[in-house]
Design goal:
mainly alpha
Length: about 60
């Protein structure tokens, strides 16, 4: 059992060396894109919710 656990972590270590990690600049750019996208989608959902609430108030 211990040998299998050691083998597992050895394999994980080998695979992690193969990963191509992003540079700090790439990470920063991706973070900005995700943040801006979330803000835009949130604003859209808020506007749709506001419109639907207004329509529902008018119907009732």
């Amino acid at each position: 059992m211990i040998a299998r656990i050691k083998n597992y972590f050895s394999d994980v270590s080998k695979e992690m060396r193969k990963v191509s990690w992003p540079t700090r600049e790439q990470l920063r750019e991706s973070t900005v894109v995700v943040t801006v996208s979330c803000l835009i989608i949130s604003a859209f959902v808020w506007l749709v919710d506001l419109a639907m609430s207004f329509i529902m108030q008018q119907l009732y």
